[in-house]
Amino acid sequence: MNMLSQQSGDDRPIGMFDSGFGGLSVARALIDLAPNENLVYVGDTGRYPYGPRPLSEVRDYSLQIAEWLITEIGVKLIVVACNTASAAALDLLQSKVDVPVVGVIEPGARAILKATKSGKVGVIGTVGTISSGAYQKKVADLSNEVNLSCAACPGFVEFVERGETESEQLTVLAERLLAPLKEAEIDALLLGCTHYPFLSRTILDVMGRNVVLVSSADETAFEVREMLDSSGLATTRDGVGSWTFYSSGDTKWFHDVGSMLFGEDLGEVIPVSWDGNSVSSE
Ligand code: DGL
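Above: inputs. Below: predicted complex with D-glutamic acid.
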């Protein structure tokens, strides 16, 4: 541990990104845990959803945003607040960029193992995340005593992006998509997509209250706080930090739906535009 830098603190912002609104569940958790940090969030709503895209494409987008956060914003750490992008690009980002990069998959996998009593656990995520095998591999690396059932939940993200977090149509879809996990009699379910915590009431209703829901968003926020504290990267600033939100899509939409999901006014949402391989704020 670098005691000198820990004493002086590091006031540079934390960078965070997601395909859209889902990462706001991670931002919310991190702001609650480390309110004095500055945060810069990019919601790539101009190219959402990431879930159905080829992983190679998600990898390119992720690298582009991470490089922009470093060169244009000067962040001290990057949080990949998206399971699909973590599954596709975490290793690449960790090898290519020169600030620490935290993903959501490992914290989530560790938490689901702690939460289960029966050893029968489930993970839900986008098609990209589930078909990448990232959770299946991470859980197997951490334990050979659990029985993991996975289900992709296409459609869930679109409900969140519409700001529709409870409705009859959502319940009907959830009943269909979650049926295999109910049959598997799991006792803990990991929300392996950062959009899904916004749907947790419906998901819990469908799964039954004896199933524990674990959010990769919360677990990741805890991991980031620990990393800040142990690495000397935590700020020593007193008072509340600033939070800045960028969107590559319709900024009014991002502001309105994002504020509703975030539970607080996001303030001005700044547009970013993608130009070939580069991105710039306008
Ligand atoms: N929030 C993203 C995740 O955690 C996915 C949303 C999308 O499909 O764009 O996987």
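The chain has two domains: 3-103+218-281, 105-216.
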